[in-house]
Design goal:
The complex is a heterodimer. By secondary structure, chain A is an all-alpha fold. Chain A has 15 helices and no strands. The chains are: A mainly alpha, B alpha+beta.
């Protein structure tokens, strides 16, 4: 499939269309909403399913040097991308040091939902990534936060560094992702057979409902804060994913990843956190304005990656790693 | 009915900070109550629980009843947590029944 075909196929896929429906509904100020508890349950299911499936694949392939290389690449990318984001923000926009560092930390970390959507897109194209990419996603969550704090000139958060490290390391999504990964690895294909109807058959449908909610959230965030954002900051939300993806592609090439895994590494590098990092930074960098980084990561970068980025990353990975 | 004068602290604070704030009251009062805040507006603008994907944009309200003579020490401890965050702290006089239910916890650790 060439790039345009990939983009077109992605655009008319049910998950993306439901996201667009949610986004559109929010922008026209519809009262459509998904109850908070249900959205939370959907998120738990998706993280659990992705983690478990990754673990099952890991049980089949085993721990390899490529896996270790990918893990190392993920950690380096997570720590380094904030440096680039911070520098670009300081030079191109009027953002002060604290807010630039907060935004940069978001872009060094990852969006597990974007990862899940990209994994599903790859599956629809017949490009199944290696199981260890789930572990790579988990390891890319945290290093960016500490780089962000360093850029802001903070040595530790007000409660001491251990509190922040604990909060980040034991973040609910990460615990569930790695835990489910471990269960999948331990039980392997036999375990998958026992739960396939739950983790496979309904996965895409649940993803559609969850992305509907994500569209609503992204749209409402844009309505609330989008008008207050400087154009140069909004642009950052569009070009930074491409820079991150390019770095991810380079790392995937060096690590010897296949197309599916490489595209996922690009997606992880291009994505920005809007759950774990914002919560951690409210503790560690409370002077930063959450509206700026959240609107960027959720209202600008997330839709960009979902609609245009993912097919682009798969196409690029196919060209370089295929 | 016999009532006793107490101080009620009401703190509207960002959800990610709740655990740290709760630890202040673990050592200083017989208990506290937390409820989710739905929506509001402050000097940082409008906020709403609906449409937030994680804890970062959510607010909660913590209530605690303390003895008047513990007010200053408690407010100092609370201020250390909330001073850098988005939130408000208010203090009011309340009358409570069953004073024995509000006996404070052990003296705070140094």
């Amino acid at each position: 499939m060439d790039g345009l075909d990939l983009a077109a196929a992605n655009l008319i896929s049910p998950p993306i269309l439901f996201f667009a429906l949610g986004l559109g509904a929010a922008l026209v100020r519809s009262d459509l909403s998904v109850p908070e508890a249900i959205a939370k349950a959907l998120s738990l299911y998706l993280v659990m399913a992705i983690g478990f499936k990754g673990g099952v694949q890991m049980a089949e392939s085993g721990l390899t040097a490529t896996a270790l290389g990918a893990l190392g690449a993920g950690i380096v990318l997570s720590a380094a991308i904030p440096l680039i984001s911070f520098t670009l923000l300081r030079f191109t926009s009027g953002l002060d040091r604290i807010n630039a560092a907060a935004v940069a930390a978001h872009y060094g970390s990852i969006s597990i939902v974007t990862f899940i959507a990209a994994t599903d897109s790859g599956a629809m194209m017949g490009l199944v990534a290696a199981g260890f990419m789930v572990a790579v996603a988990a390891t890319m969550e945290a290093p960016a936060i500490f780089t962000g704090l360093m850029l802001a000139g903070k040595r530790e958060d007000s409660d001491g560094g251990n509190g922040l490290l604990r909060d980040v390391a034991f973040n609910g999504s990460i615990v569930l992702l790695l835990g489910a990964f471990g269960v999948g690895w331990a039980t392997g294909p036999t375990g998958m057979m026992a739960v396939a109807p739950f983790f496979n058959d309904i996965f895409r449908g649940v993803l559609c409902l969850f992305l509907l909610d994500m569209g609503l959230v992204a749209g409402r965030g844009l309505l609330r804060h989008g008008r207050d954002m400087q154009p140069t900051v909004i642009l950052h939300g569009l070009y930074m994913p491409l820079i991150g993806a390019a770095l991810g592609l380079g790392a995937a090439f060096i690590a010897g990843l296949d197309v599916g895994s490489g595209a996922l590494l690009m997606t992880l590098s291009a994505s920005a956190s809007y759950i774990a990092v914002p919560a951690a930074l409210r503790l560690a960098l409370p002077e930063a304005k959450p509206a700026i980084s959240l609107t960027l990561s959720l209202g600008i970068t997330f839709p960009f990656n979902l609609i245009l980025g993912i097919p682009l990353y798969y196409w690029a990975a196919g060209q370089v790693l295929g | 009915m016999q009532t006793t004068l107490k101080k009620r602290l009401e703190i509207v604070i960002e959800a990610p900070v709740l655990d740290r704030l709760a630890r202040v009251f673990d050592n200083r009062s017989s208990g506290f109550t937390v409820i989710p805040a739905l929506t509001g507006r402050g000097i940082h603008g409008v906020w709403s629980r609906a449409g937030e994907i994680g804890d970062a944009g959510r607010m909660v309200v913590l209530f605690a009843i303390i003895d008047p003579d513990e007010l200053d020490e408690t407010l100092e401890a609370v201020y250390k947590v909330v001073s850098r965050q988005i939130g408000i702290v208010s203090v009011s006089d309340v009358q409570v029944v069953r004073d024995d239910h509000f006996k404070g916890a052990a003296k705070p650790a140094p």
